[in-house]
Amino acid sequence: MDLINQISDNIFQVQIPVPFPLKVVNCYMVREEGAWTMIDTGLQDERARAAWADAFRTLQIAPRTIRQIVLTHAHPDHYGLAGYFQDMTGAPVYLLDKEMEIVPFEWKADGEHMFMVARYFKLHGMPADIGDSVHERQMQVLAMLQPQPVMSPLREGETIEIGGETYRIVWTPGHADGHMILHRADGLAFTGDQVLIKITPNIARWPGLDPNPLAHYLDSLDKLERLQLARALPGHRAIIYDLPKRMAELRAHHAARLRDCLAAARHCTAYEVCLEIFPRLKSADDVRMALVETLSHLEYLVVKGQLTAHTQRGAQGQELVIYAPTLIPR
Q1: Apex CA 231: angle with CA 228 and CA 234, to 5°?
Q2: In Å, what is the CA distance from 16 to each residue of 78, 111, 232, 310?
């Protein structure tokens, strides 16, 4: 099957389609004597379920032989099928304790956080018609996370047995508040979306979550570099063999993005900055991810004292957050 790549004797990468611009998410099945571990799941939709059914047939996996499901983080493309597979297999679902804390808030089934996001986007200048499209898309994504699993916590510094090997858990916040990687002594690691080849992980400022995710992401890159990993199995795109080089590229990318945001933030909203930084947005997914990425950079600059943020009334009387250069006394 083309969607399955064998990484080693017992590790298989399964590429599951997702209805986002990235097209697929890399999930992993790890074999041991008479059992399997699933790492990340894809979204709960028909295409993903069909891809997994094909993968189970190809790898000759009986659902009840899946003894545990491990999630690197709770973003929809990694988390969405966890409850479905828990119901199918009876397996426990493991997530870092820090990520477990925010799941009931972020993915509350009644969409409370989605309405908070809609208000947040309006506050940051998103026009009402675009905001309605984005909110509709957010609610569609929320529906693709049902049923949600009963989760068990993992903690930083602990170890977990996967495929007969011991993996240590490392908290790497930034892309998600409770993002984790799992690495073993020989330098192989499941790294989720912490480092991706050719594309950059989305570093997003969402309401009610980490107020400065870019700072924590850059700190997590330092933390990851100290592990001296030899091979990273990521959540998207190809395996990464030269992590120091790729992490240097990611740092350079964010430094350039910060310069661009600083230059664009001239007494305007985050949405206006977003359109200057990302001039070719096509879909609701593009718009929502570009805006929260822009906000993470703007808030980083506010914390650094290079920008200020204040509220004012817009032309229609609505409250808006305005970003402006910090005035430096002469």
Answers
A1: 115
A2: 10, 25, 18, 43
Nearest to 193 by CA among 204, 205, 183, 180: 180
Paired with 168 in beta bridges are 159, 183
Confidence of residue 318 (pLDDT cuts 50, 70, 90): confident
Burial of 127 (C-beta count, 10 Å sphere; 0-12/13-18/19+): exposed
Token pair in block for residue 299: 């808030």
Residue among 230, 262, 246 nearest 196 (CA): 246
Q: How far apart are the first and last CA of the chain?
A: 66
Question: What's the pLDDT tens digit per position in 113-167?
Answer: 999 999 999 999 999 999 999 999 999 999 999 999 999 999 999 999 999 999 9
- Which residues, in sequence order, are CB contacts of 233 under 8 Å at separation 6+? 7, 11, 13, 26, 28, 188, 189, 190, 191, 239
Q: How many CB atoms lie within 10 A of CB 81?
A: 28
Under a CB-based contact definition with an 8 Å cutoff, are residues 289 and 203 in contact?
A: no
Which CATH number is associated with domain 4-99+149-253? 3.60.15.10
Nearest-angstrom CA–CA distance, 131 and 18? 22
**How far is 280 from 263, CA to CA, in rounded Å?**
19
> Which two three-digit tokens encode residue 4?
């399955």
Domains in the chain: boundaries: 4-99+149-253
DSSP, collapsed to helix, strand or coil, labels residue 170 as: strand
Pairwise CA distance, residues 34 & 27, whole Å:
20
Which residues, including other chains, have CB under 8 Å from residue 41's CB and lie 6 or more apart?
16, 27, 69, 71, 78, 79, 80, 81, 82, 84, 85
CB 137 within 8 A of CB 114: no
Query: 5-28 pLDDT, tens per residue?
Result: 999 999 999 999 999 988 999 999
Q: What is the pTM of this model?
A: 0.96
